[in-house]
Amino acid sequence: MFSKYLPHRLMKIVTSFLQNYGISRIGTFALFFAVGLGLTLVISACSPNNTSNSAATQTATQGVVVRIGYQKAATILNALKNRGSLAQTLTAAGASVTWTEFPAGPPMLEAMNVGSIDFGYTGESPPIFAQVAGTPLLYVAYDPWSPKAEAIIVPKDSPIKSVAELKGKKVAFAKGSNTNYLVVKAIEAAGLNYSDIQPAHLTPADARAAFEGGNVDAWAIWDPYLAAVEHDLDVRILTDATNLAPNRGYYLARQEFVNSHPDLLKTLLDEISKIDKWAADSPEEVAKFLEPELGIKAAALEIAEKRRQYGVLPLTDEVITQQQKIADTFHKIKLVPKQIQVKEIVWNGNKS
């Protein structure tokens, strides 16, 4: 009987009162049950477990360190790091953030593979190589970037006038990068095979030195390094990625981090979206901010910012299909040893 949970004296008084008015003992117990149930619901509703979801969330994130990998050339994450807004938001949730710089996407995802970072941003090719290698990652969002933001260039006085003339030539690019795919598709469109060129796998800094020194014939590179070399040197674009590669960027997270801290991931994406909107509206400010960070003149950076697109978007079927085409292409020419299914590692949490 629920009545035993009420104070004995109160129960006695109420019972006497109700019986004086002809209410039976059974009716008394029924009333006590109703009153007791109501009190239970009120107490439950007022309990810390139900009124303090934010406190419970903070407990779940207390002491969690969100480890982010970034490239200085990645505008949004670089800005997010330096503006400090993410650190403040995570501190309020009882968490914190650390940042590790990488020269390109592939080594960043290698770090994710060994559990050194939880989150990062790369071009379209690195996550394909990482998935083939068994890296436990998930695509969590993408940005549209721009086909105009990457290109294959040669010195202005080079005798090479078309992509077809790269046959037998040495072409510099970062292996597994977005420009790796651009080179593959550009060579294919020119009627050549990938084996017809001499790939020189170099990071952006090393590739520029080789390009300036005449040690490579062409260079496939992305913004803002592309804008910088256009600004500083006399170069000629053989082709950009228009009609060849979508040149999207992807936000990627370690599977264990996503599974353990989905709320922190959503917080992170929300903060990225805020910075993204600021950058889209403020190309001049972004250029001035990045100039000392990258050692690239603001005028060149402004060119890069104005020709790119912005957005922190959930992956669509069309985007996944295009990413699958890239994976299939790499497998076809034996750049990767096995086929993969991109859709198997796409997070759907940001569609809600």
Automatic annotation (TrEMBL):
<keyword id="KW-0732">Signal</keyword>
<dbReference type="GO" id="GO:0016020">
    <property type="term" value="C:membrane"/>
</dbReference>
<dbReference type="Pfam" id="PF09084">
    <property type="entry name" value="NMT1"/>
</dbReference>
<feature type="domain" description="Solute-binding protein family 3/N-terminal">
    <location>
        <begin position="65"/>
        <end position="282"/>
    </location>
</feature>
<dbReference type="GO" id="GO:0042626">
    <property type="term" value="F:ATPase-coupled transmembrane transporter activity"/>
</dbReference>
<comment type="function">
    <text>Part of a binding-protein-dependent transport system for aliphatic sulfonates. Putative binding protein.</text>
</comment>
<comment type="similarity">
    <text>Belongs to the bacterial solute-binding protein SsuA/TauA family.</text>
</comment>
<keyword id="KW-0813">Transport</keyword>
<dbReference type="InterPro" id="IPR001638">
    <property type="entry name" value="Solute-binding_3/MltF_N"/>
</dbReference>
<protein>
    <recommendedName>
        <fullName>Putative aliphatic sulfonates-binding protein</fullName>
    </recommendedName>
</protein>
<dbReference type="InterPro" id="IPR010067">
    <property type="entry name" value="ABC_SsuA_sub-bd"/>
</dbReference>
<dbReference type="InterPro" id="IPR015168">
    <property type="entry name" value="SsuA/THI5"/>
</dbReference>
<dbReference type="GO" id="GO:0042597">
    <property type="term" value="C:periplasmic space"/>
</dbReference>
